[in-house]
Design goal:
Blueprint (H helix, E strand, L loop, with lengths): L5 H25 L9 H27 L2 E2 L16 H28 L4 H6 L14 H30 L17 E4 L2 E4 L7
Parallel strand pairs: 1-3
Antiparallel strand pairs: 2-3
Helix pairs in contact: 1-2, 2-3, 3-5
The protein binds protoporphyrin IX containing FE.
Protoporphyrin IX containing FE binds next to α1, α2, α3 and α5.
């Protein structure tokens, strides 16, 4: 079985939890909510999460480009006994890089809302300024909402592909993105990682 390296697995799951929390707070406590004092706490937490997500996403892009990546299942469809690549797997080729891009853009556009509204000074420099009456007077707010819908669709495809491989094809897909028990020898070539038991793979 081929899998991602432990530090990348850590970055992946940490990002997943933080993105889930940022979405949850954004949808449950920020969208369609008046900009009064009760909004300060969820908005402050949302901003901290969003900035952490931005750094994590940049770290993931760098780590991913430096490390070898595990053999991707659909690059060798014949080895699974099927010639035709399922649509979900075809989509994954494009969805995976788009997940990085849209997560990155989401955080950058969030910062584009925060800068003209002085949110960083309000939350982290003790500014007495109050929140704007409505964030929608700034174009970046509409972009943040639109991107959040697109990011949700991408995450939905990502989860569906996991469910398909894990439960319908019975491939223990999650093992690729989880920690390995005990030490297992790995063989790495540029751009790829193979475990010893997978030596026959190209
Ligand atoms: C990947 C990271 C982020 C995610 C997933 C995310 C998610 C969301 C979501 C789902 C909403 C509600 C959108 C809607 O329903 O229209 C929202 C609103 C908002 N987010 Fe983010 N966000 C992220 C990063 C950031 C960052 C970095 C900032 C600021 C530094 C930020 C500031 C805001 C603000 C100001 C709002 C609008 C609140 C309002 O209209 O009352 N977000 N975010």
């Amino acid at each position: 079985m081929t899998r991602y390296r432990p530090y990348y697995v850590t970055l992946h799951w940490l990002s997943a939890v933080l993105v889930f929390l940022a979405f949850f707070i954004g949808l449950a406590s920020l969208a369609n909510t008046p900009n009064d004092d009760a909004k300060l706490l969820p908005l402050g937490v949302h901003i901290v999460l969003g900035v952490l997500i931005l750094f994590l996403t940049m770290a993931r892009i760098v780590v991913r480009s430096l490390m070898g990546k595990p053999v991707y299942r659909i690059e060798h469809p014949a080895s699974t006994g099927r010639k035709k690549i399922p649509l979900l797997d075809l989509l994954s080729r494009y969805v995976q890089p788009l997940l990085y891009l849209f997560t990155f853009l989401m955080a950058v556009v969030g910062i584009a809302i925060a800068l003209p509204t002085d949110l960083f000074s309000i939350f982290f420099a003790g500014s007495e300024k109050s929140l704007p009456v409505d964030f929608y007077i700034y174009p970046a707010r509409a972009w943040h909402g639109t991107l959040s819908l697109l990011l949700m669709l991408l995450i939905g495809q990502h989860i569906l592909a996991f469910v398909y491989h894990q439960f319908l094809r019975g491939e223990n897909f999650i093992a690729r993105m989880w920690f390995q028990r005990g030490k297992q020898q790995e063989r790495t070539i540029p751009g790829k990682i193979f475990h010893e038991e997978n030596k026959s793979a190209p």
